[in-house]
TrEMBL record:
InterPro entries: DEAD/DEAH_box_helicase_dom, DEAD/DEAH_RhlB, DEAD_box_RNA_helicase, Helicase_ATP-bd, Helicase_C-like, P-loop_NTPase, RNA-helicase_DEAD-box_CS, RNA_helicase_DEAD_Q_motif. The keyword Amino-acid biosynthesis does not apply. Residues 375-511 are annotated as: Disordered. Gene3D superfamilies: P-loop containing nucleotide triphosphate hydrolases. Residues 390-404, 412-488 have a biased composition (Basic and acidic residues). It comes from the Bacteria. Its EC number is 3.6.4.13. Residues 2-30 form the DEAD-box RNA helicase Q domain. It comes from Sulfitobacter delicatus. Pfam families: DEAD (PF00270), Helicase_C (PF00271). Residues 33-206 form the Helicase ATP-binding domain. This is DEAD-box ATP-dependent RNA helicase RhpA. Residues 244-386 form the Helicase C-terminal domain.
Amino acid sequence: MTKFTDLNLNAKVLKAVVEAGYESPTPIQAGAIPPALEGRDVLGIAQTGTGKTASFTLPMLSLLARGRARARMPRSLVLCPTRELAAQVAENFDTYSKHLKLTKALLIGGVSFKEQDKLIDKGVDVLIATPGRLLDHFERGKLILSDVKVMVVDEADRMLDMGFIPDIERIFGLTPFTRQTLFFSATMAPEIERITNTFLSNPERIEVARQATTSENITQGVVMFKASRKDREATEKRKLLRMLIDAEGDKCTNAIIFCNRKMDVDTVAKSLKKYGYDAAPIHGDLDQSQRTKTLDGFRAGELRFLIASDVAARGLDVPSVSHVFNFDVPSHAEDYVHRIGRTGRAGRDGKAIMICVPRDEKNLEDVERLVQKPIPRFDNPLGDAAPAQEEAKAEAPAKSDDKPKRTRSRSRKSDTPRAEKAAEDKPNVEAAKPEPKQEAKPEPVEQPAEVEKTEAAPAQDEQKSNRGGRDDKKSRGGRGRNDKRGGNDNRVVGLGDHTPDFIGLSFRERI
C-alpha cells in the first residue's frame, strides 16, 4: 500500500502530515500528488469526501517551500465557490504548513477589505479566495496576478451551478499562461469539460470513482409523502421530519438537514427549536460571523442539527456527521451526491434519508438516473395520507350537489311572486327601454300619475331591467343584496335606505 513517505513530499510538509495522524493517502491523493509535484496540470474527478483538498494542498506547499512573495503579488491562488469551503481550505494550509515559513491570505465576502488589504500588501505565498471578492480586490488595484505559479480550482461543478464560470474564465485570463493548474470537480458537465480543454495543458486525468457516484458505506432511503390536505403539507412534512429523527434514536448523534430554499431553512430551524431540538440555520443571507459561529459549534459537537441550504453542501469537512436528511429533493441531481457526502466520511458509516412529495418525483427520477441505481423506499411513519384525501374528495361532490338543489328549491317557493311581478312589469319595461342603435330620441312613454319624485321602487325596477334583468337573476338564486339586508325591496343597491331626488329626476328624464 502506498504511503505518504513514498510521494516525494517536502520533509517539513511530510512531518506535518504525520503529526496530523495520516499515514496512507486516499486514491485521489495518491493519483494527483505525484504529477502535481512534477509541475504537470492535473484534472481530478472524485466524489466528495475523498480527500481532494489535501491532494492539492500538499504538493502546493512542497512547491512553494522555497521562495518569497512580493507585495500584492501572490505566488499561488486557490479558488473556492463558498466562504465556508474557502475557510476550510485555509485551515488545511495552516495544518500542513506549520513547519514552513509561508504566508497566506483569505479573501471572502462579509469581511472588511481593510484587514485583507494589509495582508496582500505584505505579500502572500498562498491566496485563498472566492471569485467575487478576488475580482473586487483586483478592480480596486490592490492585487496583481501576474506572478501566480500554481492555480487551483476547487469544486468546479459547484462554480458552474452558482454562475461563477464567467468570473473563472476572466481570472484565468489574468494569470500567466505558464502557470500550473490543478482542477478538481466531482462531476464533469459539458461546460466544465470545455473550460478544462481551454485552460489546461495536457492534464493528468485522475478519476478514482465513476462520476456522480455515492459512497458505498452510506445507507440511503427515501420516504414518499403525500399530505392529507394541500394547505397542511408544510406542517405535516415538518412533523414527518421530527418522526424520522426520533426513529433513528441514539444513532443520530448529529445531522445536517438540507432544504432547497433559504426561507425553508429558517422555518425548519424554528420549528425544530420549538419542539426542543438543538438546531440552527446556515445559508447565504446570514452574516458571515453568524455562519462561522454556527458552523464552529456544529463541528465542536455543541450543536446537534445544522439546517442548511446548498451553501453548506460542498466540501465541508465534518468527519463525525452521522445522518443527512434531505427535507427537499434537490433541484439539481448532482447536489444529492454532495449533500449525502457530508456523512460517511473517512471510512465511517452514514445514513441519508430524503422526503419526496408528489411534485418532486421527477427530480427523484433524475437523482436515480444520475447515481444509476434506485433509492430504497422507507416506510412513512405518518402512514398513507392518500385514503383520507380520497375520502375528502368523495365527500366534496355530494356537498356541491346538495347546495344547488337547496338553492333552486328555495327560489321556486319564495321567489315565485317576484318572478310573476317581473313578468307583469316586463311589457312596460320593454316599451320604456330606448333602442340602442336608434339615433333619434324615442317617443316618451306616458308616466303613470301615481309615480312620485321620491318613489324609489319603480325607478329601481326599471333601472335593473335596463341593466339586463338582474332582478330575475337574483330571484332565481335567492342571493340578492336586498335579501341579505332583510328583504326590503324598496332599497337601491349601494345608495342606502333612500334614493336622492336627483336620481329620481334622472329616471324621469329617461322616461
